[in-house]
Amino acid sequence: RIERGCREMSGTSVASPVACGLGTLLASTVPEHERYKKLTPASMKQALMEGADKLPYESIYVQGPGKANLLKSYQVLQKYEPRVTIFPPELNLVDDRDYMWPHSRTPLYAGAMPLMLNLTIVNGLGVTGYFDGPPTWTPTNAQGELLAVQFEYSEVLWPWNGYLALIIHAKEAARFEPPGLAEGVITFTIRSPPFPGEKEGLSQEVAVPFKHQLLPTPDKKYRVLWDDYHNIQYPPHFVPIDDLTYKMEILDWNGDHPHTNFHPVFNWLTDNGYFVEILSSAATCFDASEYGTLVLCDTEGEFLDEEISKLRTDVTDKGLGLLVIGEWYNRAQMNKLAFFDDNTRSIWHPIVGGSNVPALNRLLDGLGIAFSDEVTKGDLRLGRDKLEVKTGTSIAKLPPQSEVWRLRTGAPVLGATKVGKANVLVYCDTTIFDINLKGNLLPHLFLDFVQYTAGISKPGWMGSGEKQEEAFVSKRGKVPMEWPEPGISDLLSRPLQCFKNAPLTFQPAGGFLEGGQSVSTRVGKESADPSFEISKGEGRGGDIEAINVHNGKEDGWRQSEGGGRAGNSPSSSQGSHLDDRFVQKITARLQPGHAGANGGTESSGIFKMYFQRQVAVFLFVIVCVLLLFIWKKRTRRNKVKATKNRYARLRQIV
Asked: Nearest-5° angle of CA 391, CA 396, CA 399?
C-alpha cells in the first residue's frame, strides 16, 4: 500500500537509488562542453559529500557526511576543479565528540590499545592515483610529540578512491604526563597520471588536522579490556543467532562488539569513568598487569594452548578480573537449525552455537568453572532488576566458596567466585546487554559485574544467591569440552600473532614486512597447515615515532633512542595472508562432499535432501489442487441445491 508522508528506512537498497537520483540531477546541471572533465565518479561523490549537512548528536557511523543537500552540492559542482579530498576532512575528537563517537570516548594514554581510524580518499585528479611517498605525522604541540603514528594505505587509488588507515599510540613517556590535548597534522601527496591529451599528471598535498585527549595512564581497576579477537565477524560459516525465539532471522550478523550491538554497555561504562579498550590481536598480546577486567562476551572463536596458559596465569597469579558472558550451545538444537540453501545448493550446518562453549570450558577448566549444554529460558531477580534470559546456557561447575543465582526453573545462570588473586563472574545470556535481541536492556548491571571483577566494590545484590562452601556441580546437561567433528576447532582458530592493533611493546622490533621474509614457528594445535605458522621477531626497539606501511611493505621507521633499521620480523600483510588461507580452508571444508566438519557423506546427503524437498513440494501442490477441486465441486453442488430449494418455496407460496 502506498502511503503519503515520510518514514524512516535504512540499508544500501534504500540509499543507493536516492544517491543515484541525486547524482543524475546534479549531472544534468553541467553544460555538455564541461562534462568530459567535470563529470566523474569522484566529482559526483565529492559534491554530494561536501554539500551534505552534518546532523547534530549523531555519530559518523550513523550519518556519514550528513544529510544530502542538493542545493549546496549544486553550488559545489558549479565551482568544481579536480582535487583530492579525504573523509573525514579533520579528526577533532575533542570538539566533535558526538560526531566522532566512539573514538572520542577512547582517550590516548601510554600502554593502551591503539586508536585506529580509517579515512577515505577520493581522488578527483584521475581514475588512478598513487601516494608520492609515505604519509607523515607532524606534531603541533608538546603533547603531540608524545604520539606514535603508524600508517597503512592503498598501493593504488583505483577507481577514484583509496584508503588511509591510522594506528595511533601514546608513547611510554606519556604515562605520567599531566592531561592535555595532543595535536598534529597528517600530510601526504597524491599523484595521478595525465588525462588523455595531457602531457603532465596532477598532484596535490593533503593535510588532515588531528586533536585528541592525552591522559596519564589510568588506574588499572578502571581499565576494561574487551576481547574482540575471538568473536567471529562477518563469518564465512553459519553462525546461528543468539536468540532462538526470534523467528525472523537465523544468522548472527552482529559483530558482538562494544561499538555496535553492545554500545549501551560501552556508553554506560565510559560515562562512569571506565576506559574500554578492544583486544584485536591474540590473548598473548597484552600485559595483564595493566587491566582490572578482561571481558569475554559471546565468544565464538577458539583459544590456542598458549592463550589458555597465559590467561590462567593472568587470573590466578596477576589478579586479572575475568567476566565471561556465554550463550547457548547444544548439539541437538544446532542440528535442528540445519537448512538447505537454494543459492549454494548445499546444507548449511551451524559451525558453533550462540557461543563457543567447548572453547570457553577448555579455557575455564583450570579455574574450576564450566558451562553446560543446557538451553535455558526464564527470568532472574537481582535486587530491583528483573533479568530476562531468552535462550542461554547454564553453569555446570564452580570452585568452592562461590555464589550462585538460579532462574525460577532452577537453572544456575549467574556465578561469582574468587580464583587465586582475581574475582571471576560468569553469566549465561546476553539478552540484557545486546540491543539486537529486543530485550529489556540493563547496562548498569554490566557495570556491577565489572566493579566486582575489578575488585572495586561488591554490588548491593551480592549475597542474595546460594553460597557454596564446597565445589558446585550441576547435573543439568553435559559439559562439552571437545568438538565431536574433526577440524571444527581449526576452523574457528585465528593466528597467534600481534598485529598493529596491539600495544607497541608487543609489536615486532623490525616492523611489519611483506610475508615470507621472517622467521616462522608453529604454534597452537599441531597442524601441517601453513596457516598455523606465525612470525617471530627478536628484541625490542625504542619508542616508535612512525611506521609507514605501503600495502604491507615497510618504508622504514625511526627510533627515538637512535639505532638503525631493525631486522626482519612479522608482517602485517602476513596476518592478512593467514586470514585468507583460513577463509580458503573453511570454504574448502564446507564444499559439498568434503570429508571435513560435516563428514564424507555430505555430498550424497545434500542431493538426497534436495530431491526430497522437490518431491515434497510436488506432492504438496498435488494435494492443494485436489483440495481445490473438491471444494469447488462441493460449492457448486450446494449452489444447485440452494437454487432448487428457492424454487420449491416459490411454488409453495404460489
From this structure: 135
